């Protein structure tokens, strides 16, 4: 669990038993700067063999591991403090080893149109329906949507570009965009599926189509991400940068 130096914060976790039997538990050590909502209890039938805990950070301590005894097992809750991010207006910052950027959070060029009220972030960007399809080599002729984000974690990550599930506008089109990070080379991303395939049904049920770019190392600092439509009708919902060892979120990455 990661907190930000100088900022008060809270994180939640669940302690639960795998077997339907009573288990007494107790926190044996809480580092300076942290407090926990409950320090002892019992996992029992009355609480569904589960205890929800809240960790609170005062913004000043260096924190560290929390030791917890449950039944005969000793567990460690690892916590850390990240330095504050100096980010300007329009820069999305990392939280808990993730950066989540809404489609409408960027500066969109003329190739894109805003559609409020759709998607998971209350608005999407759609490549204009009058655009011609382009090759990757022609991506530099398009007008991108530009996002800026700041990160503190120095490790590998998956960059997930999340679109709404759509079919190509015509048989001559696809469902593609080109992506560039920090002015690097353009990379193609394809959201296309075939007919009413299993992948199409999965995308429709989850209301998302995901294209993933693995990144070996993301250096701390401010970064720029650009997306250029290669086909008309591509509909962007959000961008997620998920660092290695980020806690899983329900329905966040798997398609």
Describe what this molecule looks like in 3D.
The longest helix has 9 residues, at 198-206. Helices cover 4% and strands 47% of the residues. It has one helix and 21 strands. It folds into two domains: 2-82, Immunoglobulins (Immunoglobulin-like, Sandwich), CATH 2.60.40.10; 91-243, Sandwich (Jelly Rolls). Strand 13 and strand 14 (123-127) form a beta hairpin. Strands 10, 12, 15, 17, 18 and 20 form a six-stranded mixed sheet that branches. Strands 11, 13, 14, 16, 19 and 21 form a six-stranded antiparallel sheet that branches. It is mainly beta.
Features:
47% strand, single chain, 6-stranded antiparallel β-sheet, Jelly Rolls, Immunoglobulin-like, elongated, 255 residues, mainly beta
SSE layout and pairings?
Elements: E1 2-4, E2 9-16, E3 23-29, E4 34-36, E5 40-43, E6 50-57, E7 66-70, E8 73-77, E9 80-82, E10 91-93, E11 98-102, E12 107-108, E13 112-116, E14 123-127, E15 145-151, E16 155-163, E17 176-181, E18 187-190, H1 198-206, E19 209-218, E20 221-229, E21 235-243
Parallel strand pairs: 1-9, 10-15
Antiparallel strand pairs: 2-6, 3-5, 3-7, 4-6, 7-8, 11-21, 12-15, 13-14, 14-21, 15-20, 16-19, 16-21, 17-18, 17-20
Brief account:
The chain is 4% helix and 47% strand.
Largest pleated sheet: 6 strands, mixed
Rounded to the nearest angstrom, the distance between the terminal CA atoms is 25 Å
Briefly, what CATH class of the largest domain?
A: Mainly Beta
Structural class of the helix and strand makeup?
mainly beta
Element order: H for helix, E for strand: EEEEEEEEEEEEEEEEEEHEEE
The DSSP helix count reads 1
């Amino acid at each position: 669990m990661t907190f930000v130096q100088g900022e008060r914060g809270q994180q939640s976790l669940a302690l639960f038993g795998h077997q339907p039997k009573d288990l007494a538990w107790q926190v044996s050590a809480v580092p300076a700067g942290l407090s926990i909502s409950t320090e002892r209890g019992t996992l029992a039938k009355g609480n569904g063999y589960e205890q929800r805990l809240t960790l609170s950070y005062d913004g000043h301590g260096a924190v560290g591991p929390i030791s917890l005894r449950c039944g005969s097992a000793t567990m460690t809750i690892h916590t850390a403090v990240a330095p504050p991010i100096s980010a300007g207006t329009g820069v999305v910052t990392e939280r808990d080893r993730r950066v989540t950027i809404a489609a409408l959070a960027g500066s969109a060029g003329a190739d894109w149109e805003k559609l409020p009220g759709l998607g998971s972030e209350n608005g999407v960007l759609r490549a204009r329906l009058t655009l011609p399809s382009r090759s990757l080599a022609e991506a530099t002729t398009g007008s991108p949507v530009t996002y800026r984000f700041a990160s503190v974690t120095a490790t590998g990550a998956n960059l997930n570009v999340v679109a709404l599930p759509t079919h190509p506008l015509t048989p001559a089109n696809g469902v593609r965009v080109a992506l560039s990070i920090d002015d690097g080379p353009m990379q193609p991303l394809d959201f296309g599926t075939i007919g009413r395939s299993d992948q199409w049904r999965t995308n429709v049920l989850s209301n998302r189509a995901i294209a993933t770019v693995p990144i070996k190392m993301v250096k701390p600092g401010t970064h720029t991400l650009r997306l250029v439509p290669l086909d008309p009708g591509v509909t962007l919902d959000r961008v997620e940068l998920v660092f290695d060892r980020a806690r899983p979120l329900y329905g966040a990455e798997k398609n």
